Amino acid sequence: MAAPRKEDVKTIIMDATETLLSSHSIDNITLAMIAGEAGISKGTLYYHYKNKESILIDITDRYLSDQRDQLSIWAENEKKDTSFHRLLKYVIERNVYETGPRLHLLYNACIGNEEVRAMIVDRYREFSSYIAKLIAKRVEGMDPNYLSWMLLLLSDGLILQSELKTPGFDVQHFIAQTDQYAQMLQISSNKQQ
User: What are the C-alpha distances in Å from 145 to residues 73, 76, 107, 150, 158?
Assistant: First the structure.
């Protein structure tokens, strides 16, 4: 049997780390635990990754690339309603219900990991710019850059509320209300044109 290719080993390591993150904080996970979960030696793990943060960065890149690809496919589908309010709802739902390792990364960035912080800031700028372009194609008379950042900030806040399980706060209801208000905004914007 042939040994796995380098890309395959990295995928195995990322998948193992994600499995561990579902039940442990990043602080409580060791590289030895990751190697064990991946079924590889620590030496193999160290060959591909020098620390946990590098694994998190690759997981996040994979997650964000997949999220952007899915958004692109959805937004370009001429058979779907991809109007402004539907775009907002799509982005919020994907961000809130498919968080990936985002909370772990934000935590590391906030406690001083400069490499993680710089990567997150860069990815937010890229994603915000992409979403702004999609918004600009759908709405006139509103600042697409502002709306894009508002959408990302709203998504992050909803992720926190969802993870905190805040009593009396229903994330799904909030998303539905946001969709209703976005529809009204779109109708108002269309009337002004």
Answer: 21, 20, 26, 9, 20
